[in-house]
Amino acid sequence: MEGAFGAWVPIVRAPETAPESSPREHMPGVMPDGRTTFRTTSRPETKVRSELPTRTRRLSFQAADPPTQRIVLPLKLLVVASETPDEADERRRTAGASSDETYRQTVSALAPDAAIETVSCLGGGAAADGLDLAAFDGAFFAGSPIAMHQDNAATRAAADFMTRVFSVGLSAFGSCAGLQIAAVAAGGRVETRSPSMKAGFTRGIVATTEGRDHFLLAGRPLVWDAPAMHADVIAQMPPGGTVLARSKHTPVEAAEIRHGAGVFHGVQYHPEIAIDEIAAAILRQSTSLVEEGLARGEDDIRAYAAMLTDLADDPQRHDIAWRLGLDADVFEPARRMTEIRNSLAHLAARRP
Protein backbone atom coordinates (compact mmCIF):
# COMPACT_ATOMS: atom_id res chain seq x y z
CA MET A 1 0.00 0.00 0.00
CA GLU A 2 1.48 3.36 -0.99
CA GLY A 3 0.74 6.41 1.13
CA ALA A 4 1.70 9.97 0.38
CA PHE A 5 5.08 9.52 2.05
CA GLY A 6 5.96 6.07 0.75
CA ALA A 7 5.02 2.50 1.55
CA TRP A 8 2.91 1.87 4.65
CA VAL A 9 2.03 -1.29 6.51
CA PRO A 10 -1.24 -1.66 8.47
CA ILE A 11 0.46 -1.21 11.84
CA VAL A 12 3.46 1.08 11.73
CA ARG A 13 4.01 1.64 15.43
CA ALA A 14 3.46 -0.70 18.33
CA PRO A 15 1.19 0.70 21.08
CA GLU A 16 4.09 1.01 23.52
CA THR A 17 6.18 3.15 21.15
CA ALA A 18 6.43 6.78 22.19
CA PRO A 19 4.57 9.06 19.75
CA GLU A 20 6.63 11.00 17.32
CA SER A 21 6.80 14.76 17.74
CA SER A 22 3.86 16.34 16.00
CA PRO A 23 4.37 18.69 13.06
CA ARG A 24 1.07 20.40 13.90
CA GLU A 25 2.73 23.10 16.02
CA HIS A 26 4.26 24.70 12.94
CA MET A 27 1.92 23.42 10.25
CA PRO A 28 -0.05 26.16 8.47
CA GLY A 29 -3.80 25.88 8.90
CA VAL A 30 -3.71 24.12 12.31
CA MET A 31 -4.13 25.97 15.62
CA PRO A 32 -1.99 25.01 18.66
CA ASP A 33 -5.04 23.40 20.32
CA GLY A 34 -5.50 21.14 17.31
CA ARG A 35 -8.39 23.04 15.69
CA THR A 36 -8.29 23.18 11.91
CA THR A 37 -8.60 26.63 10.36
CA PHE A 38 -9.16 27.33 6.70
CA ARG A 39 -6.97 29.87 4.91
CA THR A 40 -6.53 30.74 1.27
CA THR A 41 -3.13 30.27 -0.32
CA SER A 42 -1.39 31.69 -3.36
CA ARG A 43 0.24 28.43 -4.35
CA PRO A 44 -0.52 28.09 -8.09
CA GLU A 45 -1.34 24.39 -8.02
CA THR A 46 -4.32 24.89 -5.68
CA LYS A 47 -7.53 25.09 -7.68
CA VAL A 48 -10.43 26.94 -6.02
CA ARG A 49 -13.76 25.40 -6.98
CA SER A 50 -16.99 27.35 -6.69
CA GLU A 51 -18.81 24.23 -5.52
CA LEU A 52 -18.19 20.55 -5.10
CA PRO A 53 -19.56 18.69 -8.14
CA THR A 54 -21.79 15.70 -7.76
CA ARG A 55 -19.45 12.86 -6.90
CA THR A 56 -19.47 9.11 -7.07
CA ARG A 57 -18.69 7.37 -3.79
CA ARG A 58 -15.38 5.57 -4.01
CA LEU A 59 -13.32 3.55 -1.58
CA SER A 60 -9.78 4.83 -1.93
CA PHE A 61 -8.05 1.49 -1.45
CA GLN A 62 -5.91 2.13 -4.58
CA ALA A 63 -4.96 -1.55 -4.64
CA ALA A 64 -6.55 -4.39 -2.72
CA ASP A 65 -5.62 -4.41 0.93
CA PRO A 66 -3.50 -7.33 2.13
CA PRO A 67 -5.65 -10.45 2.61
CA THR A 68 -4.90 -10.38 6.35
CA GLN A 69 -6.85 -7.11 6.56
CA ARG A 70 -10.10 -8.70 5.38
CA ILE A 71 -12.63 -10.71 7.40
CA VAL A 72 -13.50 -13.91 5.55
CA LEU A 73 -16.14 -15.36 7.89
CA PRO A 74 -19.67 -14.89 6.39
CA LEU A 75 -21.18 -12.61 9.04
CA LYS A 76 -24.77 -11.34 8.98
CA LEU A 77 -24.60 -7.60 9.65
CA LEU A 78 -26.99 -4.69 10.00
CA VAL A 79 -26.14 -1.12 8.98
CA VAL A 80 -28.34 1.42 10.77
CA ALA A 81 -29.09 4.84 9.25
CA SER A 82 -30.14 7.95 11.19
CA GLU A 83 -30.30 10.54 8.40
CA THR A 84 -33.64 11.91 7.23
CA PRO A 85 -34.48 11.25 3.55
CA ASP A 86 -33.59 14.86 2.67
CA GLU A 87 -30.25 14.65 4.50
CA ALA A 88 -29.45 11.37 2.76
CA ASP A 89 -30.29 12.81 -0.66
CA GLU A 90 -28.12 15.89 -0.07
CA ARG A 91 -25.17 13.75 0.93
CA ARG A 92 -25.64 11.56 -2.16
CA ARG A 93 -25.57 14.69 -4.32
CA THR A 94 -22.37 16.10 -2.83
CA ALA A 95 -20.45 13.03 -1.62
CA GLY A 96 -21.81 10.26 -3.83
CA ALA A 97 -23.52 8.24 -1.07
CA SER A 98 -25.65 8.67 2.03
CA SER A 99 -23.91 8.02 5.35
CA ASP A 100 -25.35 4.52 5.71
CA GLU A 101 -24.39 3.71 2.10
CA THR A 102 -20.81 4.79 2.83
CA TYR A 103 -20.82 2.55 5.89
CA ARG A 104 -22.24 -0.40 3.99
CA GLN A 105 -19.60 -0.09 1.27
CA THR A 106 -16.81 0.23 3.83
CA VAL A 107 -17.95 -2.80 5.83
CA SER A 108 -18.44 -4.79 2.64
CA ALA A 109 -14.90 -3.96 1.49
CA LEU A 110 -13.46 -5.19 4.79
CA ALA A 111 -15.75 -8.23 5.08
CA PRO A 112 -16.65 -9.19 1.48
CA ASP A 113 -18.41 -12.41 2.53
CA ALA A 114 -20.78 -10.65 4.92
CA ALA A 115 -24.51 -10.45 4.25
CA ILE A 116 -25.51 -6.86 4.98
CA GLU A 117 -28.95 -5.33 5.49
CA THR A 118 -29.78 -1.66 6.05
CA VAL A 119 -32.51 -0.11 8.18
CA SER A 120 -33.34 3.37 9.52
CA CYS A 121 -33.63 3.89 13.27
CA LEU A 122 -35.82 6.97 12.87
CA GLY A 123 -39.05 4.97 12.89
CA GLY A 124 -42.04 5.11 10.60
CA GLY A 125 -41.54 1.76 8.91
CA ALA A 126 -42.57 -1.82 9.43
CA ALA A 127 -39.07 -2.97 8.41
CA ALA A 128 -37.53 -1.54 11.58
CA ASP A 129 -40.42 -2.52 13.85
CA GLY A 130 -40.51 -6.13 12.70
CA LEU A 131 -36.78 -6.66 12.35
CA ASP A 132 -35.41 -9.69 14.20
CA LEU A 133 -32.31 -8.07 15.67
CA ALA A 134 -31.22 -11.29 17.34
CA ALA A 135 -30.69 -12.84 13.89
CA PHE A 136 -27.67 -10.59 13.22
CA ASP A 137 -24.07 -11.04 14.30
CA GLY A 138 -23.56 -7.31 14.72
CA ALA A 139 -24.81 -3.83 13.87
CA PHE A 140 -23.03 -0.71 12.58
CA PHE A 141 -24.57 2.72 13.25
CA ALA A 142 -23.71 5.36 10.65
CA GLY A 143 -23.29 9.04 11.40
CA SER A 144 -25.82 11.79 10.72
CA PRO A 145 -26.71 15.37 11.74
CA ILE A 146 -29.15 14.08 14.41
CA ALA A 147 -28.87 16.16 17.62
CA MET A 148 -29.25 13.77 20.52
CA HIS A 149 -29.31 16.60 23.09
CA GLN A 150 -32.73 17.57 21.72
CA ASP A 151 -36.04 15.90 22.55
CA ASN A 152 -37.99 15.23 19.37
CA ALA A 153 -39.56 12.36 17.45
CA ALA A 154 -36.33 11.49 15.63
CA THR A 155 -34.09 11.39 18.71
CA ARG A 156 -36.65 9.38 20.69
CA ALA A 157 -37.00 6.87 17.84
CA ALA A 158 -33.22 6.52 17.52
CA ALA A 159 -32.78 5.96 21.26
CA ASP A 160 -35.65 3.45 21.32
CA PHE A 161 -34.09 1.48 18.48
CA MET A 162 -30.73 1.41 20.26
CA THR A 163 -32.49 0.22 23.42
CA ARG A 164 -33.80 -2.73 21.41
CA VAL A 165 -30.27 -3.46 20.21
CA PHE A 166 -29.02 -3.50 23.79
CA SER A 167 -31.94 -5.62 25.01
CA VAL A 168 -31.32 -8.50 22.58
CA GLY A 169 -27.58 -8.57 23.31
CA LEU A 170 -26.55 -7.53 19.80
CA SER A 171 -22.96 -6.34 19.62
CA ALA A 172 -22.81 -2.96 17.86
CA PHE A 173 -20.36 -0.33 16.66
CA GLY A 174 -20.98 3.23 15.55
CA SER A 175 -19.35 6.48 14.48
CA CYS A 176 -20.17 10.01 15.57
CA ALA A 177 -23.97 10.18 15.94
CA GLY A 178 -24.01 6.40 16.36
CA LEU A 179 -21.93 6.71 19.53
CA GLN A 180 -24.10 9.56 20.80
CA ILE A 181 -27.30 7.58 20.21
CA ALA A 182 -25.89 4.69 22.23
CA ALA A 183 -24.81 6.99 25.06
CA VAL A 184 -28.24 8.61 25.37
CA ALA A 185 -30.08 5.29 25.12
CA ALA A 186 -27.98 3.93 27.99
CA GLY A 187 -28.54 6.97 30.22
CA GLY A 188 -25.77 9.37 29.21
CA ARG A 189 -25.97 12.99 28.10
CA VAL A 190 -24.95 14.82 24.92
CA GLU A 191 -24.36 18.56 24.59
CA THR A 192 -23.14 21.09 22.02
CA ARG A 193 -19.37 21.05 21.56
CA SER A 194 -17.38 24.03 22.86
CA PRO A 195 -15.71 26.22 21.71
CA SER A 196 -16.99 25.31 18.24
CA MET A 197 -17.94 22.42 16.02
CA LYS A 198 -15.22 20.02 14.89
CA ALA A 199 -14.78 20.26 11.15
CA GLY A 200 -12.32 18.29 9.07
CA PHE A 201 -10.00 16.31 11.30
CA THR A 202 -9.54 15.67 15.00
CA ARG A 203 -5.90 16.08 15.97
CA GLY A 204 -4.17 14.49 18.90
CA ILE A 205 -6.56 11.72 19.93
CA VAL A 206 -5.10 9.96 22.96
CA ALA A 207 -5.98 6.51 24.26
CA THR A 208 -6.90 6.30 27.94
CA THR A 209 -5.37 3.70 30.23
CA GLU A 210 -8.40 1.49 29.55
CA GLY A 211 -8.16 2.09 25.82
CA ARG A 212 -4.50 1.19 25.38
CA ASP A 213 -5.15 -2.52 25.77
CA HIS A 214 -8.66 -2.58 24.29
CA PHE A 215 -9.26 -4.55 21.10
CA LEU A 216 -11.06 -1.60 19.48
CA LEU A 217 -7.88 0.50 19.32
CA ALA A 218 -5.44 -2.31 18.53
CA GLY A 219 -2.92 -0.98 16.01
CA ARG A 220 -3.41 2.67 16.92
CA PRO A 221 -0.36 4.57 18.18
CA LEU A 222 -0.53 6.45 21.48
CA VAL A 223 -1.67 9.58 19.62
CA TRP A 224 -3.44 9.77 16.26
CA ASP A 225 -5.61 11.91 13.99
CA ALA A 226 -8.90 11.02 12.31
CA PRO A 227 -11.55 12.47 9.98
CA ALA A 228 -14.27 14.19 12.01
CA MET A 229 -17.40 16.32 11.55
CA HIS A 230 -19.53 16.95 14.62
CA ALA A 231 -21.18 19.78 16.54
CA ASP A 232 -22.03 17.75 19.66
CA VAL A 233 -20.10 15.67 22.19
CA ILE A 234 -20.88 13.22 24.97
CA ALA A 235 -20.87 15.32 28.15
CA GLN A 236 -21.74 12.53 30.57
CA MET A 237 -21.06 8.85 30.05
CA PRO A 238 -23.85 6.44 30.97
CA PRO A 239 -23.55 3.83 33.73
CA GLY A 240 -21.60 0.93 32.28
CA GLY A 241 -19.63 3.20 29.97
CA THR A 242 -15.84 3.32 29.66
CA VAL A 243 -13.93 6.08 27.88
CA LEU A 244 -11.25 4.56 25.63
CA ALA A 245 -9.87 7.73 24.02
CA ARG A 246 -10.22 11.50 24.27
CA SER A 247 -8.89 14.72 22.74
CA LYS A 248 -8.52 18.27 24.00
CA HIS A 249 -12.06 19.50 23.35
CA THR A 250 -13.83 16.16 22.98
CA PRO A 251 -13.92 14.24 26.28
CA VAL A 252 -15.13 11.01 24.66
CA GLU A 253 -13.45 10.09 21.35
CA ALA A 254 -13.88 6.33 21.76
CA ALA A 255 -15.93 4.32 24.23
CA GLU A 256 -17.36 1.01 25.31
CA ILE A 257 -20.94 1.07 26.61
CA ARG A 258 -22.41 -1.95 28.39
CA HIS A 259 -26.15 -1.74 28.91
CA GLY A 260 -28.72 -4.43 29.49
CA ALA A 261 -27.65 -7.56 27.65
CA GLY A 262 -25.65 -5.71 25.01
CA VAL A 263 -22.39 -3.91 24.43
CA PHE A 264 -21.66 -1.02 22.09
CA HIS A 265 -18.26 0.18 20.89
CA GLY A 266 -17.96 3.47 19.12
CA VAL A 267 -15.89 6.48 18.15
CA GLN A 268 -16.73 10.16 17.84
CA TYR A 269 -14.68 10.44 14.65
CA HIS A 270 -15.26 8.83 11.23
CA PRO A 271 -12.97 5.91 10.30
CA GLU A 272 -15.33 5.15 7.40
CA ILE A 273 -14.96 8.54 5.69
CA ALA A 274 -12.33 9.34 3.06
CA ILE A 275 -10.90 12.83 2.73
CA ASP A 276 -12.91 13.75 -0.37
CA GLU A 277 -16.06 13.14 1.69
CA ILE A 278 -14.68 15.50 4.34
CA ALA A 279 -14.27 18.06 1.56
CA ALA A 280 -17.93 17.61 0.64
CA ALA A 281 -18.98 17.89 4.29
CA ILE A 282 -17.22 21.19 4.95
CA LEU A 283 -18.71 22.66 1.77
CA ARG A 284 -22.19 21.59 2.88
CA GLN A 285 -21.63 23.32 6.22
CA SER A 286 -19.64 26.30 4.99
CA THR A 287 -22.07 28.88 6.40
CA SER A 288 -21.82 27.40 9.90
CA LEU A 289 -18.03 27.24 9.69
CA VAL A 290 -17.82 30.94 8.86
CA GLU A 291 -20.33 31.84 11.59
CA GLU A 292 -18.32 29.91 14.18
CA GLY A 293 -15.08 31.62 13.20
CA LEU A 294 -13.36 28.56 11.76
CA ALA A 295 -12.98 30.32 8.41
CA ARG A 296 -12.84 33.97 7.37
CA GLY A 297 -15.08 33.39 4.37
CA GLU A 298 -16.45 30.79 2.00
CA ASP A 299 -13.57 31.33 -0.42
CA ASP A 300 -11.24 29.98 2.27
CA ILE A 301 -13.42 26.92 2.71
CA ARG A 302 -13.57 26.27 -1.03
CA ALA A 303 -9.78 26.49 -1.24
CA TYR A 304 -9.35 24.06 1.66
CA ALA A 305 -11.89 21.65 0.17
CA ALA A 306 -10.15 21.84 -3.21
CA MET A 307 -6.85 20.80 -1.63
CA LEU A 308 -8.52 17.86 0.11
CA THR A 309 -10.13 16.76 -3.14
CA ASP A 310 -6.83 17.05 -5.00
CA LEU A 311 -5.13 14.93 -2.33
CA ALA A 312 -7.90 12.34 -2.59
CA ASP A 313 -7.43 12.25 -6.37
CA ASP A 314 -3.65 11.93 -6.02
CA PRO A 315 -2.38 10.64 -2.64
CA GLN A 316 1.17 11.26 -3.85
CA ARG A 317 0.66 15.04 -3.49
CA HIS A 318 3.23 15.35 -0.69
CA ASP A 319 2.96 19.14 -0.87
CA ILE A 320 -0.75 19.15 -0.01
CA ALA A 321 -0.38 16.58 2.76
CA TRP A 322 2.40 18.70 4.29
CA ARG A 323 0.49 21.96 4.05
CA LEU A 324 -2.62 20.46 5.67
CA GLY A 325 -0.70 18.53 8.30
CA LEU A 326 -2.19 15.19 7.24
CA ASP A 327 -0.55 11.78 7.30
CA ALA A 328 -1.48 8.15 6.78
CA ASP A 329 -3.79 8.13 9.82
CA VAL A 330 -6.41 9.81 7.64
CA PHE A 331 -5.61 9.09 3.98
CA GLU A 332 -4.30 5.51 4.11
CA PRO A 333 -7.42 3.29 4.28
CA ALA A 334 -5.97 0.40 6.27
CA ARG A 335 -4.99 2.78 9.07
CA ARG A 336 -8.02 5.05 8.85
CA MET A 337 -10.46 2.11 9.14
CA THR A 338 -8.72 0.54 12.14
CA GLU A 339 -11.69 0.53 14.52
CA ILE A 340 -14.14 -0.86 11.97
CA ARG A 341 -11.76 -3.65 11.02
CA ASN A 342 -11.15 -4.44 14.70
CA SER A 343 -14.89 -4.55 15.35
CA LEU A 344 -15.42 -6.98 12.48
CA ALA A 345 -12.60 -9.19 13.74
CA HIS A 346 -14.18 -9.12 17.21
CA LEU A 347 -17.55 -10.19 15.79
CA ALA A 348 -15.91 -12.98 13.79
CA ALA A 349 -14.13 -14.25 16.90
CA ARG A 350 -17.45 -14.43 18.76
CA ARG A 351 -19.01 -16.69 16.15
CA PRO A 352 -19.34 -20.33 17.35
Automatic annotation (TrEMBL):
Residues 15-47, 83-104 are annotated as: Disordered. PROSITE patterns: GATASE_TYPE_1. It comes from Fulvimarina endophytica. Residues 135-285 form the Glutamine amidotransferase domain. GO terms for cellular component: cytosol. This is Type 1 glutamine amidotransferase. The keyword Acetylation does not apply. Pfam families: GATase. GO terms for molecular function: transferase activity. Keywords: Glutamine amidotransferase, Transferase. It comes from the Bacteria. InterPro entries: ChyE-like, Class_I_gatase-like, GATASE.
